[in-house]
Recover the amino acids of this structure.
């Protein structure tokens, strides 16, 4: 039987990031890899695979990115659609702009809109920082 070799990026936020090579004939989970890297902690952390919160039992594939993220950190951001309502929101844990818009019920994937973070063009997979101002604004086309 052939062994499966997977390269998994493993890290902890806040903390370090490192690459681990995992060899396993069967499955390997996010919890297994974090334990192998000496990073596994349960209280106050969530496990993310490719930026999505998952249980420790989640099976991994080659190239997956596993992060152990401290979630007791609370940040405050202003977020919304302009024109429209801009909300002051408290966010627990490390969240992307996409996740923050989902939390307030705004579809950030609509055509004709662009993301601005602190007045600078941004991307939906960008992580938020305390004090950020995030807006969806209409695309402006020039001559």
């Amino acid at each position: 039987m052939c062994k499966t070799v997977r390269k998994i990026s493993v890290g902890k936020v806040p903390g370090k990031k490192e690459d681990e090579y995992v060899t396993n004939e069967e499955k390997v989970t996010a919890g297994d890899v974090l334990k192998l890297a000496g990073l596994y902690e349960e209280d106050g952390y969530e496990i993310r695979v490719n930026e999505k919160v998952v249980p420790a039992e989640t099976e991994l594939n080659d190239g997956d990115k596993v992060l152990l993220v401290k979630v007791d950190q609370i940040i405050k951001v202003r977020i919304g659609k302009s024109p429209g309502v801009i909300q002051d929101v408290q966010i627990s844990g490390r969240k992307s702009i996409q996740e923050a818009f989902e939390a307030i019920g705004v579809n950030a994937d609509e055509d004709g809109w662009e993301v601005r973070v602190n007045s600078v063009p941004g991307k939906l997979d960008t992580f938020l920082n305390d004090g950020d101002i995030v807006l969806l604004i209409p695309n402006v086309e020039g001559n």
